[in-house]
């Protein structure tokens, strides 16, 4: 088993698992992460990943798409069915459709190879902030409700009208939160990118459509005829419910 691991000088940051079979890339990423305070571990396959996940938990997982044996897409689908751990896909594929596939399977973001270390760090830090890794919750974020649904921005939890907790990825929660904070307003895709990626140059616009589609699947009474999140032709999306403080 080829595993890279470096322990940072500080333990104030998240623990990250990298699944990457290219040893040179894995070494570079692990060094970059540990030099910036993260506890970073890498492994080269799904089988080795499973061994590590049985031994410990991670705050974020980075998956290469092209892996020996089970590929990154399949791993992403399987992981997302079991947990809400933030996932970043690493891909050398140039076609946007391949990137969108990862998002449809539940990935929160992706980075295309070759990537800049600073960009990778910025995306990781942004995703961890949005998944509430930091212990101090943001101030002034009171729980909200709409149509019987309840959303808590600090705990990042969503409950349906029956009180059942609904699992959402970091990106899906961000999209729903953006809508709840802007009810009755048409939000363009560019605005949603800004609201959900903390100002970073996020994925292609189509990724927003993917995340909106996944949110619809979880909150709409009829996904084929959505009434809560309406598409406004050539403009963006409109969140129709009245949102109130919970």
Q: What does this protein look like?
A:
By secondary structure, the protein is an alpha/beta fold. Helices cover 37% and strands 20% of the residues. Strands 1-3-2-4-5-6 form a 6-stranded mixed sheet, with helices on both faces. Helix 1 (23-35) links the parallel strand 2 (15-19) and strand 3. Helix 4 (96-104) packs parallel to helix 8. The chain is globular.
Counting DSSP H or I runs of 4 or more residues, the number of helices is 8
- Give the oligomeric state of the chains in this entry, treating copies of one chain as homo and distinct chains as hetero: single chain
Largest sheet: 6 strands, mixed
Kindly report how far apart the N and C termini lie. Answer: 50 Å
Low-pLDDT regions: 6-12, 133-140, 198-204
Strand order of the largest sheet: 1-3-2-4-5-6
If you average the pLDDT, what whole number results? 84
What global shape is seen?
globular
Structural class: alpha/beta
The percent of residues in helical segments reads 25-40%
Question: Any idea what the radius of gyration is?
Answer: 18 Å
The portion of residues forming beta strands comes to 15-25%
Order of helices and strands: EEHEHEHEHEHEEEHEHHEEE
- E-strand count: 13
Write the layout of secondary structure elements.
Elements (H helix, E strand, L loop, with lengths): L3 E3 L8 E5 L3 H13 L3 E5 L2 H10 L4 E5 L7 H11 L4 E5 L4 H9 L4 E4 L4 H14 L13 E3 L2 E4 L4 E3 L10 H12 L4 E2 L1 H8 L8 H15 L9 E4 L3 E4 L4 E2 L1
Parallel strand pairs: 2-3, 2-4, 4-5, 5-6
Antiparallel strand pairs: 1-3, 7-8, 7-13, 8-9, 10-12, 11-12
């Amino acid at each position: 088993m080829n595993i890279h691991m470096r322990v940072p000088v500080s333990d104030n940051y998240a623990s990250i698992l990298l699944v990457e079979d290219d040893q040179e890339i894995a070494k570079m990423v692990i060094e970059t992460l540990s030099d910036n305070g993260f506890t970073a571990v890498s492994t080269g396959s799904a089988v080795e990943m499973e061994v590590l996940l049985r031994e410990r938990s991670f705050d974020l997982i980075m998956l290469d798409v092209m892996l020996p044996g089970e590929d990154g897409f399949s791993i992403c689908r399987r992981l997302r069915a079991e947990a809400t751990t933030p996932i970043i896909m690493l891909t050398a594929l140039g076609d946007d459709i391949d990137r969108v596939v990862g998002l449809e399977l539940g990935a929160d973001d992706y980075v295309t190879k070759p990537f800049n270390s600073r960009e990778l760090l910025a995306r990781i830090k942004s995703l961890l902030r949005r998944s509430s890794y930091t212990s101090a919750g943001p101030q002034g974020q009171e729980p909200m409700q709409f149509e019987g649904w309840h959303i808590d921005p600090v705990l990042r939890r969503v409950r349906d009208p029956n009180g059942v907790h609904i699992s959402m990825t970091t990106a899906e929660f961000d999209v729903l939160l953006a809508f709840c904070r802007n009810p009755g307003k048409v939000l363009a895709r560019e605005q949603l990118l800004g609201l959900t990626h903390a100002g970073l140059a996020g994925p292609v616009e189509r990724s927003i459509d993917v995340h909106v589609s996944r949110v619809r699947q979880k909150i709409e009474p009829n996904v084929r005829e959505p009434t809560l999140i309406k598409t406004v032709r050539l403009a963006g999306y409109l969140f129709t419910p009245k949102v109130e403080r919970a």
